[in-house]
Task: inverse folding
């Protein structure tokens, strides 16, 4: 894994994060961590399986840790876009849409952020994730959305199916991929090829 860095945001929040520098013209991945989101270990867990593949393929990767005192989904959701802008400026990441990815709580964070700021992203991929408010479905339908979810992750599976149906009803491009034989950590079993195919 690349080393963790820290950045002070205009709002005054301090955010630790991982940055993998990519090659010019290659995609940018913005990954939001699972679990409590305030722990560096969650950023590692959310990226470690594929980080060497992203490095080999020249992707730029950004992944923040939520500041102490609250998860992105509970307290710090506005920092998701604030951090992205600050990190892109610091590391001279070219302008243009970003592939947004999140696992579990990171998936919820990713979907809600994309619905509020669809102009910043080219796609959203979650493993798993769902929207907590149906009022955001229409805005999210502007983007391609992929939901990976474990066959045995019952509550999240039903929410994922409901989200895909709602997005399709709005004319959106949405896909549900059920990972057979897996539960809530199905995202951690995905091959790089399977994940990359939905990010691009």
Result:
């Amino acid at each position: 894994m690349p080393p963790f860095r820290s950045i002070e945001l205009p709002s005054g929040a301090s955010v630790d994060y991982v940055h993998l520098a990519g090659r010019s013209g290659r995609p940018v991945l913005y990954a939001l961590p699972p679990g409590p989101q305030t722990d560096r270990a969650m950023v590692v867990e959310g990226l470690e399986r594929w980080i060497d593949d992203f490095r080999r393929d020249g992707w730029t990767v950004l992944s923040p840790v939520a500041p102490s005192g609250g998860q992105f989904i509970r307290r710090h959701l506005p920092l998701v876009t604030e951090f992205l802008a600050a990190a892109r400026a610091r590391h001279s990441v070219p302008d243009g849409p970003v592939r947004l990815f999140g696992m579990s709580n990171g998936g919820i964070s990713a979907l809600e952020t994309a619905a509020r700021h669809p102009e910043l992203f080219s796609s959203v991929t979650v493993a798993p994730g769902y929207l907590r408010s149906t009022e955001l479905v229409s805005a999210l339908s502007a983007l391609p959305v992929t939901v990976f979810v474990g066959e045995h992750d019952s509550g999240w599976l039903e929410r994922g199916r409901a989200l895909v149906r709602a997005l399709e009803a709005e004319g959106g491009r949405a896909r549900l991929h059920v990972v057979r034989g897996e539960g809530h950590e199905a995202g951690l079993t995905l091959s790089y090829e399977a994940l990359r195919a939905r990010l691009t």
